[in-house]
Every structure is written in structure tokens, then in C-alpha cells.
UniProtKB/TrEMBL annotation:
Pfam families cross-referenced by the UniProt entry: PilZ (PF07238)
Source organism superkingdom: Bacteria
Start and end residues of each PilZ domain: 3-80
Species in which this protein is naturally found: Methylobacterium jeotgali
Name by which UniProt lists this protein: PilZ domain-containing protein
Amino acid sequence: MQDRRAAPRHRVDESAVIAVDEHRSIACLVYDISASGVRLTMPDTSDVPETFLLSSRHLADARVCVAVWRTAEEIGAAFERPAA
């Protein structure tokens, strides 16, 4: 199987928050992260929009993410802008 990732991912296992809008957020776990994206786990991904704001202690600033793939409990997302 060929790995198609643009950058290597690093295991994190750290809590984070997805901002759905200015009044609602969803807790999640950052499973792994790279310079170009992130894999998140949570009990249910159905309320997470295609584009969302992710905040985590592992990130210097909140990052805009775009969902690339999803299952019932995981989302693979690309950062809108790669880390500087």
C-alpha cells in the first residue's frame, strides 16, 4: 500500500475543540498531526461541518481545517494553510 500523505504524521493523542459556530463546539481527540493536516477522533462526526476551526494545545494558533475524509468516528482534515 502506498502512503499518499504530503508530510509524515506524528502521533499526538491530545484533546482539542472544533468550533462549529460562535455558540457551539465539539470536543475531539487529535490522533495524529502533520504540517499539512490532522486525524481527529470523536464519538460522532455527523455534526462536524466540512470546514471548521480546530483549537489544541499542540497548535500554536487555531487552524482552519477542511475535511478530506470521514467515518462515523474519525475525520481526516487538511489545514487550509500549511504551517509556516
